[in-house]
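Schema walk-through. Below, the input block comes first and the output block second. Nothing else is stored per chain. Lengths vary across the set, and this one has 391 residues.
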Amino acid sequence: MTTSPDTALVPGEPAAPATSSDPAAEAHVWTEPLAPQDATAPALPAPAAPAEGPEDGQQAEDAVRRDAREFGAFARTGGWTFALKVARSVRPGGVPAQQADGAEPKVSAKEFARLAGCSAERVMRFWRAWDRAADDGVVPVFEALAPGVDVELPDADVWLGYYTSRSSGDSPRGQAISATAEAEGIRPTKALEVAENPTALRAAILADPGTAQAARHALLDRLEDDPELGRDLAKDIARTGELSKAVAAEARVATTVESVRDLVDNGEMTTPSGERVPAPEHVVAEAKQHLALIEGLDEEDEAGYAADAHKAVRSLVAEAVEDDPQLRAHERRTRFQGKVRKAAKAFEELTLDDAADVYEEELLEQLETLQRAVADCIAELRAAAPPDREA
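--- output ---
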């Protein structure tokens, strides 16, 4: 297609509008008119970027520095930071009207709690912690503090020794629990929580063997300072058949092991008559071997080996007594004297006020036989007396 010369585009001039007919107009249909080609659409305003002037940047930096300083203060002093705020601003019960002449008088714990949005009880826990520390000279007394005035604070580690998050920790019982908890190296709040809920402690003991073992060790440690607890435990054990039998068996084992250990530690043996005499070296060496074997066993295997060790040591002691003529004679004399004294004591305890009630022919015959035996014994001893004692 060739463009006619009269319709050719001239550089710099706008093109003439086309003369072609509008189909919509011809169809009698209304259409929205188009904007002129040279019209410019209004531009929407762009979101305004926040202007940051020098003052705003300085304020943000100051806020960061303030947060860092406050964090560092709390990291160094812990709860002392908040305790100071309470100690310098709170006086329990408030300040009497005649004394409230300062610019910033102290307020009651209730009022301070209202301003802080917490309970007065929590405020008083911080107040009492500061009070205890002041008694120990760790922090200044309340009279030396003024609202808004900072003082040097102790380290954070010291805080746990004075503060308890539970109200029960302020009582004498709670203080004793807290002191024991600190000595054991745990937080007082943990021990106080257990003490406040004995049912939970019972459930843990019933369900967990480890907790039961810890409770057993604690009871044994407490027995030294609590004789009444020891008596109660003894009664409970005696009234329980299986426990009483087990205790008796364990007592025999403990006595057996202790006798062997005593021989090894002291170098002395106990003869059948109960006399304590020096033990021969081979007896001590044998007992030491048995003791080493027992101490290397588990508790459930200890009873059998302890009985064998005790039997072996007793046999060695008896052999040592028989091998020593002097010791053998001393042993026989001691045993004989012991029996005579025992018989004499039995007769001394007899009373004949009611002889008619206890009389029996058979009993009388036994006494007559005993009388003849005593007479024979006396005759034998007199015959064996040294010449210088015959008179």
